[in-house]
Every structure is written in C-alpha cells, then in structure tokens.
Amino acid sequence: MTKVSAMQFRQIAEYTIARFGLEDTPEQLMAEWDEMAREAYSTVVEAKPHAVEYLHLLRTSGAKLAVATSLPPALRDPAMAHVGIGGLFDEVVSVDDAGDVSKESPDVYLLAAERLGVSPADCTVFEDLLVGIKAAKSVGMTVWAMNDDSSAGDWAEICEVSDGVLFDFSDAPEIL
What we know:
Helix content: 40-55%
Strand content: 5-15%
Order of helices and strands: HHHHEHEHEHEHE
Strand order of the largest sheet: 3-4-5
Radius of gyration: 16 Å
Oligomer: single chain
C-alpha cells in the first residue's frame, strides 16, 4: 500500500498493469476505477468521527478552511456532498491544481494557504498519510495526524513526526 499511496492516478494504473500483467490500457483501467470510485464516494464514504461537527465549529469561529487533496474533482465533490461538507470550505484544491504533483510535494498545501491568504506557519493540517504529513511539516505547517487503517503500517512514524494525533475529531483542538 505504501508504494502506491503517494502516486498519481495514472502512475497507479501503470504500476497495476505492469505488476499483474493486465492487458488493459491505463485509460481503460482508470475509467473502470473511476466508475467504481464515483459510486463509492457518492454513497459509501463516511466522514471521520465528529469531523462534520468540528468543521461547523471552525466555520462558526471564523476560521479560514481549505481542502488540499489528491482526489480529482470527479471524486472529491461527490464525497464532500455525500458527507455534508461541500459548502464549508473557502477553498478546495487538489494536486492537479498544484501542477499535477503528488502529496509527497508540499505544493498542494502551499496552494491552499496561498488561496486562503495565510502563511504556511499559520496553517493547521489534518492528514492521515505519512507522505502528506511530511510534506506539510516541511513548509512549517502544524500537522495533526488522523488515525486511519490505510496508514497502519506507518503509524509509529506518523506519531513521531506529527504535532498531534487524533482518533476522533471530538478530541481536536478547539482553537487553532
């Protein structure tokens, strides 16, 4: 899992085709995955525990909010709508907006900060991937790690490099 977690979508398709000797083209495989993912993101995906309430608290407090994600809009937007957070953010950016970089690069976080009009040092990031945590930390952002099963293999290092650890957003800092 760690090998592909920071790859771009096409890179994952190419890796999968090579790894398993598939006859599909990257485009065919990505189209199949897109359809499966669109269905899942628009009907199955759930917010982390108490995340929606926490976002409403931050919004009410006047905090500037952004999403910095590796998801393309075709997946990101249905997921955000499904969990009820679509209108809570001032900015929504993906790695595509930042020049098609991976989450190993801090560019997506820097773009979110720039669009919010704040310095990286004034940003708090909630992240569940080690590569994302390291990227945001590398530009001086405060990073809270969110526990996720997909990052279990990296959990010890995640705990070392992050500024705080969350299992539930009810434990998140009230004032950032």
